[in-house]
Specification:
Length: about 230
């Protein structure tokens, strides 16, 4: 997979991309991640990428010319004829585990880190841009949402996680949150690990875990529980 990030603040994403699972995925040539500074496509000496919106109002808007030129250049380097171009935006579809799974099947992914009040909407006349949100709140920029999307997607790529079954049993898989887990020591300050988990009876353990998943989902996310029992 090739992932291209378009941002006005590349330093925000540079360091996290060099850590943990995402870093190993790049080192193992499972994913290539390129960070593009949008200001490199600005035409004036001040590297201006934003301007006031027509019609007035507060805030600034990404100008269309730098974004158009940047996207055009990136698309020359990707392999597929169809490319997923995502704009991080609070008004977009909310990121879910199902969405992350679908995106993990793409060959090329371009993420535009939204900023200010938005982008010149005319850019969508030239490129198939979809908006994606990471939650019902607003951040100062789209760099952290871009990192969230990348982390959610890259960890699902074959070879990134040594035990892929761990990913498929995460929260939101099969519509439920994950169950409780315990590890050594068996006893800590008078609190024991549930005895059943030490029994070696994997059939009963799996049943216990499934019951816990349902119990936790019902308590913490009744909206998910209602969907699950339908």
């Amino acid at each position: 997979m090739q992932i291209d990030i378009i941002t006005a603040f590349p330093k925000i994403v540079d360091e996290p991309l060099q850590q943990s699972i995402i870093s190993r995925a790049q080192q193992n040539n499972i994913v290539t991640i390129n960070v593009h500074n949008l200001r490199d496509w600005a035409k004036d000496r001040h590297k201006t990428i934003d301007d006031a919106p027509y019609g007035g109002g507060a805030g600034m808007i990404f100008k269309i010319e730098p974004l158009y030129d940047c996207l055009s250049e990136i698309l020359k380097s990707v392999s597929g004829e169809k490319n997923r171009i995502i704009l991080t935006s609070p008004r977009g579809e909310k990121l879910s585990q199902d969405k992350a799974v679908k995106l993990s099947n793409e060959n090329d992914l371009i993420i535009i880190c939204g900023h200010y009040k938005g982008i010149d909407e005319r850019i969508k006349e030239f490129f198939p841009i979809e908006e994606l949100s990471v939650g019902d709140y607003v951040l100062s920029g789209g760099e952290i949402p871009a990192l969230i999307i990348i982390d959610a997607v890259v960890r699902l790529l074959p070879g990134v996680i040594s035990d892929i079954d761990s990913a498929w049993t995460d929260s939101f898989s099969e519509g439920l949150l994950d169950c409780d887990y315990y590890t050594r020591p068996e006893r800590f300050k008078g609190v024991n690990v549930p005895e059943l988990l030490l029994s070696g009876d994997h059939k009963k353990i799996n049943k216990w875990r499934e019951e816990k998943r349902i119990e936790i989902t019902k308590k913490n996310r009744p909206d998910l529980y209602k969907k699950y029992i339908k």
